[in-house]
Amino acid sequence: MDRIRKRSIQLSKLCSFACCRSNSLDDHAQIGQKGYSRVVYCNEPDSQEQIRLKYRGNYVSTTKYTTINFIPKSLFEQFRRVANIYFLVVACVSFSPLAPYSAPSIILPLVVVIGVTMAKEGVEDWRRRLQDIEANNRKVEVYDKSSCSFKQKKWKDLRVGELVKVCKDEYFPADVLLLSSNHEDGVCYVETMNLDGETNLNSKHALEVTSLLHDMERFKDFRAVIKCEDPNEHLYSFVGTLYYDCQQYSLSTQQVLLRDSKLKNTEHIFGVVIFTGHDTKVMQNATDPPSKRTKIERRMDKIIYVLFITLISISFIGSFFFGIETKKDISGGNYRRWYLRPDKTTVFFDPKKPAVAALFHCLTGLMLYGYLIPISLYVSIEICKVLQSIFINQDQAMYDEETDRPARARTSNLNEELGQVHTILSDKTGTLTCNSMEFVKCSIAGTAYGRGRTEAEIALARKRGEQLTELTHIDEFESKQSVKGFNFKDERIMYGQWVHEKQKDVIQKFFRVLATCHTVVPEVMDSCEIIYEAESPDEATFVIAAREIGFQFFLRNQTSIQLHELDPESGITVDRVYNLLHVLEFSSARKRMSVIVRNPENQLLLLAKGADSAIFERLSKQGQVFEEKTKEHIERYSEAGLRTMAVAYRELDDDEYKIWEKEFLKAKTSVTVDRDVLVDELADRIERDLILLGATAVEDKLQHGVSHCIDKLARAGIGIWVLTGDKRGTAINIGYACNLLRHGMKQIVITLELPEIEALVKHGDKDAIAEVSLDCVKKQIHDGKSQVGKESSIEFGLIIDGKSLTFAMDKTLVNDFMDLAIRCATVICCRSSPRQKAIITRLVKSVTGRTTLAIGDGANDVGMLQEADIGVGINGVEGMQAVMASDFAIAQFRFLERLLLVHGHWCYRRISMMICYFFYKNITFGFTLFWFEAYTSFSGQPAYNDWYLSSYNVFFTSLPVIALGVFDQDVSARLCLKHPLLYQEGVRNLLFNWVLILGWMFNGLLSSIIIYFITTNSTVGAFRKDGPVVDYSILGMTMYTCVVWTVNCQMALSINYFTWIQHLFIWGSIALWYIFLVVYGSIPPTLSTTAYKVLVEACAPSIMYWNTTLLVVISALLPLLSYRAFQIRFRPMEHDRIQIQRRRSESLERDVAQSRHSESSEIRNSSELPTEVRNRIDSLKASSRRKNS
């Protein structure tokens, strides 16, 4: 073996590491044109050419506001709400003579409400600003030509063209062109979790021509020009050219290190800054997430419009009657209401111009009855939602100890939407499963290896009615020293026994492929243990499996892979070096990856692994020896819910390889639009005439509690769709394992894997295939609909593959398909692409008109999460991109049960009740003003003192409603989970439909009538023993007291779960009213006006005041009490039934406990009696029993 030789093969020839060789290109058509006009003068940031370009600095701001625009911009945000605009207009008009109250009394509450909301916005934005300050003040080493050394500089001061040095575990401060690294050929490894959420390492490589730049003196003389694309958001593409030493070199993403990615497994790198600040790709991608509004919010807007219509209507009615009364004041020269002096009045009360007076009165009425619109509604709801989110974040039952991750509400806007989910759309891998792969079985040379059964196999066997006596679960074979990623047991090939197998040569080649065909990076720990850093869990699993069998991958450099192998001849472990020439990477389109290596025997080999469909169609005739048997095993593994991958190889001819390599490098270094297409075509050309070795079977285990969670969600009436890239057989069996497909559920399968379709595929007529496929899918959909229509009492599960789904979403079929899918309890879409996932989510949302929830864990789920009404991200092993795009984040799928059935139900109920109560209390208060105005000839006179009016929504009724929105529980968390059908209250929107909303409004109207008329009729005559009668101030204060008591007591009746906080807020609000009267009433009458000592001197000494309050409150509460008694007795809701059942069970438990206690007491007492007496009692009991029988 020629293990030490000159390295004529450089890493720049490797596809996955460099993709670019030092090469002069002819095709640079795009450089210099629109979109490709950026020019960077390397190591010359102070040159006139660079300064003239005026590129952005590296200062980054992610805040919504600045010091200058905070007030105007935040005010604009606040006054986008219709209610706030109304109150602003009222506040402005309150300075005119039209206002029925003083201007400060309306301005203060508006300022408080707007101020609280602005303060909240300001605090949130300040937190973002602190993060920006921290990032902008980080330090990076920048080359200083004067001292020929690197000096520290703040990120925010970095400029385009400067040379930087970034060390291990540091973040890149800007988008940097990689020049060199501490590795000889300029390779480095980066973690891009902050960009795309992926935790796996990506390799980058410098151009060969710059990879030798390490010396400080050489940097001083380094000059180059980069011409490249303009700033854009595309993370995975880069087009540019480096002009250096009178040569030009093409640049790609392999040479670009993006801001906020981290350097890993590399001591340091040197690079030149090409994009700074908001021009960097990460900042170009920093767009706001899609705006999502809940259905309750949208309906609340409609209710506000209804209240506005009511406000205008009663203002019009008041002004109409005011005009009539005003006109009558002068009739035939006689003054009807002489005491008003209609002969000497203003335009606002002119009997000669009643229409004008009525118009002005209408404006006064619009201000006076403005209390129908709840000014503090929005801010109260925001406070409640924030506190609800804190409870979700702190729920210990949704904390995952293994990963140390709690649940996290990333937005508080959608809390109540969690209680209305009609359909869940879920990814499978990493969402329902662990995405922690374990190598469990394999097929080599037509022989199946691996013992035991998976969960899916056991579920399938139970479905078929098979006996499970001697077949063991695969986990029971685990060795005492279990290895993560390896759960394989077969004595035929383990512990070196494979050398005795008949096909030992094939076995050897099989595991060599697994040990070399990958992009895994080994890292040796202090304990000499080797840790594998892989781009996917599958890759690490294959390398671990090869190691456990005897083919240990232990070292990788830029041009070789080294293994410890068991030599079958000598029986000892030897080191083998494979020269790595090219890596043809895996992609979702290619469905395979391969490497080209030269082994120690100087053979040129192409080693490949990939989807069976991609490998089998590329086999040579000589390579199909084991095809049939391998296909059988793959089918069996798929039924067992395992992920399969075929393994093959090919020996290359040197001449053929040289011709191919020349074309491949030319295509790879081109800067044309179709570069990727050319590269894929050339890769496809070399990946032909393969020889099949076998197939792997990897298990992605179900997460703990998935089956139970799905069963609970199904019992709650939530439809579940699974959108997966797996094969149909794998998806179906995973469906049975996790209770998606249940026994007794009929399956409707829509597929294009039919003989007639396959026959057309062989002929290759695309138009004919499309036409027949569309007809075939159409027929299967119509058959499924007729089947569902005939057997409506049976549950159905719909399974459809990706190809069929493409045709099912045709505009002529999509409505029929969605109609069928919605009528099925479970839908499984196999072989779905990320784009199809997003489209299906959008269709389900639009067709059903109900709340949809999407849940996933990977970057391919982002579109689905953003399309759904609610996106839930899982903190999985595929990175954080799904979490970053989500509205809620959880660590395990099973926590979705509690998130929806407990927190979702509570939040929906709380927000619904809270909004209804808000409208109730404001209608109650507002209509007492209307009745009083009618009593005073619609004069525009308010019933209450100005500060009574302004304090109502802010001080005396706001805190109890917030307590309701945060703490109330109709049933406990345990009962929510025990009775999942309770969740249907939210799905069917039983607590916030128009009937209930109008009912609360009617209750408010009724309460206002009771309060006004009982108060006015109960205070006729002498008010106290000393003779004074009720005046305007006493009547207003008494009515206001009754309103405060009534609405707070209504709240007490509506609450199901009392805490000390609710008691404090309800009774404290009532107490605060009396404290306010004492304090405000002690202020001189020039300020307190009608409130001056009204409680202390006028009302408190009067028994009539207290009796009236008691009578009014009881009378106003009777309608609600009567309705609830009738509802619980004759038309109970689900939560009523559960509460009744709970009380009965508690009562029964008490009776049983008392019975046991009495029996034990009786036994104890009887034991104290004489023996003769006890015998006599026993004989009497026995004779009594005989008579009864």
Describe the structure.
This protein has a nine-stranded mixed beta sheet, with helices on both faces. A nine-stranded antiparallel beta sheet has the order 19-18-28-27-26-25-24-23-22, with helices on both faces. Helix 10 packs antiparallel against helix 27. It is built from 39 helices and 35 strands. Helix content is 46%, strand content 16%. With 1189 residues, the chain is α+β, with helices and mostly antiparallel strands. The protein is globular.
Low-confidence stretches: 1-29, 476-480
What is the percentage of strand-forming residues? 15-25%
Termini separation: 102 Å
Sheet with most strands: strand arrangement: 16-35-34-33-17-29-32-31-30
Q: Care to count the β-strands? A: 35
Morphology call: globular
- Largest sheet properties: 9 strands, mixed
Question: Mean pLDDT, nearest integer?
Answer: 83
- Helix coverage percent: 40-55%
Cα-atom Rg, whole angstroms?
39 Å
Number of helices: 39
What structural category characterises the helix and strand content? Answer: alpha+beta
The gist of it:
46% of the residues lie in helices and 16% in strands. It is α+β, with helices and mostly antiparallel strands.
For this entry, give a set of tags.
disordered N terminus, 35 strands, alpha+beta, globular, 1189 residues
Q: Helices, strands, pairings?
A:
Layout: E1 38-42, H1 48-53, H2 70-78, H3 82-93, H4 103-136, E2 139-144, E3 149-154, E4 163-167, E5 175-181, E6 187-191, H5 193-196, E7 201-205, H6 216-221, E8 224-228, E9 240-244, E10 247-251, E11 256-257, E12 262-264, E13 268-275, H7 281-284, H8 295-328, E14 330-331, E15 334-335, H9 354-368, H10 377-393, E16 408-409, E17 421-426, E18 433-444, E19 447-449, H11 455-464, H12 504-516, E20 521-524, E21 530-533, H13 537-549, E22 551-556, E23 560-566, E24 573-584, E25 592-598, E26 604-610, H14 612-616, H15 627-639, E27 643-651, H16 654-668, H17 675-686, E28 691-702, H18 706-715, E29 719-723, H19 728-737, E30 746-750, H20 755-763, H21 766-790, E31 796-800, H22 802-808, H23 814-822, E32 826-829, H24 834-848, E33 851-856, H25 862-867, E34 870-874, H26 881-884, E35 888-890, H27 895-935, H28 946-956, H29 958-967, H30 973-978, H31 984-987, H32 994-1018, H33 1032-1054, H34 1060-1081, H35 1085-1088, H36 1094-1099, H37 1103-1130, H38 1134-1167, H39 1171-1188
Parallel strand pairs: 17-29, 17-33, 29-32, 30-31, 31-32, 33-34, 34-35
Antiparallel strand pairs: 1-8, 2-3, 2-4, 4-13, 5-11, 5-13, 6-7, 6-12, 8-9, 9-10, 14-15, 16-35, 18-19, 18-28, 20-21, 22-23, 23-24, 24-25, 25-26, 26-27, 27-28
